[in-house]
Write a structure and sequence with these properties.
alpha+beta, globular, Coagulation Factor XIII, Chain A, domain 1, seven-stranded antiparallel β-sheet, Cathepsin B, Chain A, eight-stranded mixed β-sheet, 517 residues, 3 domains, 23% helix
């Protein structure tokens, strides 16, 4: 393959753990290896202690463990988020914006004015319905329409009753995301919440009515292919009006000491997560200097589903480092516009090829039709990435021509890497991979296809292969009547630009010829 995708060297993994050598925790009931080892040695010397350990373990399970319920100050807090690492790993990965230099973020963002009054899930493990539909879904709709969130709040039961596990004590967050995207959400006023029943499923007419409130989409927010939460990507979503749904391990002081408190500061014992369970909540803001101007004082604002008594009126701040330690999943929902800035069909996109070694643009100039070409030859073996700046949410696909003239897909390079560029701004992608100009031939061809709606890119690639002529001609023929005719192409010698006033249903395509020596 003349241009191929290769994994970046020396990928550094971010340190998301608290200071003092802390490590990111695992699932519920997680105990440090040192503690387990010490217990095993002790039990080996005195087997009678096993009875004591069993009694303690039963107590922990009943009062603080996977039963997902703790009695605190005459209040019962339920959780109910189940985690499936394999399913989460298969969820689409978001290509985040470039660093904070290319895309400067405000120091703080709050979506509180779009949030419904925090409710209480009561005796049911339905937090997934509350974090997704009740909070995130309502925030999107209130922002889109400008209406009072408490007047249009969505029903957690409408969602949860379609996905809850037996006994009403849990659900997967990604299952909720799928329902909100494919089916939609439904007003709480028309589908009341009942924490004693999760068996009442929505009728077909209710599901049909919910379709008008379908969410545009979602993706996981992680550092590359890992499952570590990407804190910068979370902030980028919030800065563009999109709440973030999260799954965290909670217990200990998060349940016992948070009545009336604005900020959660974990107790030292919390970091072992003994007796913790999974819980779904919604991030609705951030502040880099919430608790001081020094490093380590930034925090996320989280809306919970334990009523106004928990935290400060149902919400609380969690420091970035603590969130990163206890978080298991983070999902960004696609923005849906706002009442004062509705979505339009006018789209402008800028592309550039960035040399990995020099960090400089590889100069590109406009030739004719939809074809651009590098101004001078690059050295064979050069690794580069693509810098994309989009003014509107769109989908970006990259194809290339092989030595036998066949076409192949460069991006998305795996089924879980999303082509969606929903957060507007500048992104350098692929994040953990690069494109490599290999040793074969002296000229390579890439095709960039930009759409407003997702396409079957594999079918498009097959169609390109069935056409005749140059690569530009084959790409154009494969897209046929889908190509938007009114497109203004331009190049400043470093970047490629295009603009169109009507990108609703059509496709914009361009071909880049890469000379190499």
């Amino acid at each position: 393959m003349p241009i191929r995708m290769v994994e970046d060297d020396n990928q550094s993994q971010p340190d998301n753990s608290p200071g003092g050598g802390g490590r990111r925790g695992g699932g519920g009931g997680n105990i440090g290896g040192g503690i387990i080892g010490a217990l095993l040695m002790l039990l080996g010397k005195n087997p009678k202690l096993l009875i004591v350990v069993i009694v303690i373990a039963i107590a922990v399970y009943i009062f603080g463990g996977k039963g997902c319920m703790q009695q605190v100050a005459s209040m019962t807090f339920n959780t109910g988020a189940n985690f499936d690492p394999q399913q989460y790993d298969a969820t689409e990965i978001f290509e985040p914006l470039a660093d904070n230099v290319k895309n400067p973020l405000p120091e703080s963002i709050s979506l509180e004015k779009y949030c419904p009054t925090p409710g209480n899930q009561g005796q049911q493990g339905s937090c997934v319905g509350w974090g997704n539909a009740y909070c995130a879904g309502t925030v999107l709709e209130a922002e889109r329409t400008g209406q009072d969130p408490d007047q249009i709040v969505f029903s957690p039961s409408f969602l949860y009753n379609q996905i809850g596990v037996q006994g009403c004590q849990g659900a997967l967050i990604e299952d909720a995301m799928q329902v909100m995207t494919k089916v939609g959400s439904f007003p709480l006023a028309q589908f009341p919440y009942n924490d004693q029943d999760c068996s009442t499923e929505p009728s077909q007419s209710q599901k049909q009515a919910a379709s008008q409130f379908r969410m545009y989409g979602y993706n996981r927010l992680t550092n590359g292919d890992t499952q570590e939460p990407d804190l910068l990507a979370i902030k980028q979503n919030l800065a563009q009006g999109a709440p973030v749904v999260v799954g965290m391990m909670v217990g200990g002081s998060f349940m016992q000491d948070m009545v009336g408190r604005e900020m959660w500061i974990p107790a030292s014992s919390d970091y072992d997560m003994m007796g913790f369970g999974g819980h779904c909540m919604c991030i609705v803001g951030y502040d880099d200097y919430k608790f001081g101007t020094g490093t380590g004082n930034g925090a996320f604002l989280i809306q919970n589903s334990w009523g106004p008594e928990w935290g400060k009126n149902g919400r609380a701040w969690v420091r970035y480092k603590d969130f990163a330690y206890f978080a298991k999943e983070a999902y960004g929902v696609h923005p849906m516009g706002s009442a004062d800035k509705p979505l339009t069909d006018k789209l402008s996109v800028q592309f550039g090829l960035i040399d990995n070694s020099t960090k400089q643009n590889i100069p590109v100039e406009y030739k004719s039709g939809i074809t651009f070409e590098t101004s001078s030859a690059i050295v064979k073996g050069t690794k580069f990435k693509m810098e994309v700046t989009n003014s509107l949410d769109c989908y970006t696909y990259i194809f290339a021509q092989d030595t036998d003239q066949s076409s192949y897909v460069l991006f998305p390079y795996t089924p879980k890497h999303s082509p969606y560029c929903g957060i507007t701004g500048t992104r350098l992608f692929p994040k953990d991979y690069s494109m490599l100009a290999d040793e074969f031939g002296n000229k390579d061809y890439m095709a960039i296809v930009v759409t407003k709606q997702p396409i079957d890119f594999k079918a498009l690639n097959e169609s390109i292969n069935s056409q005749q002529g140059s690569y530009e001609q084959r790409v154009s023929s494969a897209l046929k009547n889908q190509l938007i005719s009114e497109v203004r192409f331009d190049s400043d010698g470093a970047n490629i630009r295009f603009e169109t006033d009507d990108a609703k249903d059509g496709v914009v395509a361009m071909v880049i010829a890469v000379d190499k020596r």
